[in-house]
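Reviewer 2 asked us to include a model.

Predict the structure of this chain.
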Amino acid sequence: MKPLVRLLALAFVCYALPISAAPNYTGMNQAVTNYFAALDVIDKKLPSVDNAAGTAEMINAWALANEIFADATDQFAAQNPQIRGLPKPPEEFAKIIGRLNKLNTDYPKLASSIGKLGQQFKDDPEVLKALLRFQKSLIRLHISGELQKPTATPVTKEPRKCRLPASSSAQRRRISTGPQ
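Predicted model (structure tokens):
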């Protein structure tokens, strides 16, 4: 009877206490691969886009890639809370961060081409909707995962003084100090 109790107690301890395993980066690596695959497709299709519908499609495709990557980052962070607040990212992140840092060199004309098309077709409601979605996806991508713990005390900055051109020093004083 005692061996059975010990076995049950051991099983309970193993079940109840979480085993701290190293994070599995497979999902993040796959998310990065999928992200760049989506950007490859957009990069190949972009030169043939010459209308508002195509522009909205390309912008929405990039926004979708951002959203999917942000979802993967959020999921990774939720599954691996032990890496939150580390002074520097784990070694395994070096490859992922390295690939993401190459975004500007691997796709040098992607952002400017999308920007030019967006400017050209800015009056189209579908393009405007796509641009708004893209902007939201960039914000979400920026904050996704939140691997760093927020600081307890917010960082405050001194307000910057606006330097507007003025014709005289008296006008400059009025602008910087307000109405007198």
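The mean pLDDT is 75. Residues 52-79 form the longest helix (28 residues). We have added this to the supplementary material.
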